[in-house]
Amino acid sequence: MVLNRFRSKQVLFAGLLLFVLVSNYFVYRLPAIPMPENARAVVIGSLVDLAIVAPLLMLSLTRKKGFSLKRFITFMVMGLIAARFIIPINYFEPFKFVPYAAIGVEGLIVLAELGLIFLLIKHLPRIIKEIKEHQVSSLFAFPALVKEKVSSHPLISIVAAESLMFYYAFASWKRKPPVGEIMFSLHQKTSLLAFYIMLIHAIVIETIGIHWWLHGKSAILSIVLLILNIYTVIYFIADIQAVRLNPLKMNENHMQVSLGLGKRMEIPYDAIGKIDWGLDAEHYNLKSKGLIEFMARDFEEVKPHCIIHFSRPLKATLFLGMEKEFTATTLRVDEPERFRHILENKRSLPLPK
At 170, phi and psi to the nearest 5? Predict the structure, then answer.
C-alpha cells in the first residue's frame, strides 16, 4: 500500500516535470500560441519554471536522497542551462548572462567544498596523532574526529571513508588484531576471508582476460573498466584488513561493532531494550525493517547468535560514510557463550557517569 502510494507520487511529479518542460518548449514554437511583441514577461516566466519549479519537482522525485540547498542549486543550474536550449535565441538574448551566473554560483560552491578538503588536510596530522596517543580504533575514531574538527559535510565524510580504505589497504599490515577479554571476532569461524580472496582472484583473472580483448574494441571503456576493477580489489583488501583489525569491542558503557568498511555502529548498553538468544534469534525474520546484520558471510547459510532490539533508534555508518538509523541488529560472534555472559553482566551493572 505504502509502496503503491510512493510510486503514484513519483509518477505525478514526473508527469508535472515533463509538462513544465514540454509546455515551455512549445509555447515558443506553436503557431497557435501568439507571442506578444514584448516577450520579456514570457521569458521570465519560463526562467522561473526552469530555475525554481522544475528543480523543486526534481527534488521531490529524488527525495530519498534528502532535501538540501546544494542539490537545489545544482538542479537550478541545470534548469537555467536547459533554458538556453528551450528558449529560442532571439527571445533569450537579453538573458544570456543568466546561465553563466548560475554556473558561477555552482563554481563558488565547488570552491567552498575544496576549501573543506584543504581544511581536512591541515588537521590530518593532529587527528592521526590523537588516534595514536589514545590507541583507539581508526575505523571509529577517524571519522568522528574528522566530523568534530573539520566538518560533517557529506563530501568530507566520503573523503574520510576513502582515506580509511587506502589506510587499511596499504598502511595497516604491521598492525596485529587486538585481543583481550572484551574483544570478540566475528569472522574466524567462517569462510569470509576465503570468500574475499576468491573474489579478488576472479576480478584479477577477469581484468587480465577482458581488458586486452576490450582494449581493441574501445580503449576508453577498457581503461574505465580497469580502474573500476583496481578500485574494487583495493576495497576488498581494505575490507579484509578492517574485519581482522576491528573485532567487536565491549567498552564500559557501549560496544563497538563493525564488519569491514561497509557498516559499523556503537551500541550503548542503556539503549538495549531486549535480546533474543538461541532459537528465538535463529527463527527471527532477518528481512525485518530497521534491522542491520553483523554476521560474517560464509559459503553456507548462517544463523544469528542473538538479536539485539534497541529501546531507541541508533545510527549506523554505512558505505562512504552514509548514516542510517536502525531499531535492531543481528550478531554472530566466534565465542557466543562468553559474549552472552559479558554482555549480560554489562547490562546488569550500573553505567559509569
Answer: -120, -25
CB 166 within 8 A of CB 158: no
| Distance between CA atoms of residues 262 and 317, nearest Å | 8
Question: Which pTM value belongs to this model?
Answer: 0.72
Interatomic CA distance for residues 9 and 19, integer angstroms: 15
Q: What is the DSSP letter of 330?
A: E
The torsion angles phi and psi of 171, rounded to 5 degrees, stand at -120, 10
Residue of 148, 151, 77, 67 whose CA lies nearest to 109: 77
Rounded Cα–Cα distance for residues 153 and 113 (Å) = 9
Q: Strand 248-250 and strand 291-294: pairing?
A: unpaired
Q: Give the whole-angstrom CA distance, residue 148 versus residue 152.
A: 8
Task: Give the three-state DSSP class for 170.
Answer: helix
Q: What is the pLDDT of residues 79-94, one digit of tens each?
A: 888 887 888 887 777 7
Q: pLDDT per residue over 128-151, tens digit each? A: 888 888 778 889 999 889 988 888
Question: Given phi > 0 = left and psi -120 to 50 = alpha, else beta, which region is 274?
Answer: beta
User: What are 282's three cell numbers?
Assistant: 535463529
**Nearby residues of 81 by Cβ (< 8 Å), 6 or more positions away:** 99, 102, 103
Q: Which residue has the cell 596517543?
A: 133
Asked if 177 and 187 count as a contact pair (C-beta separation under 8 A), the reply is no
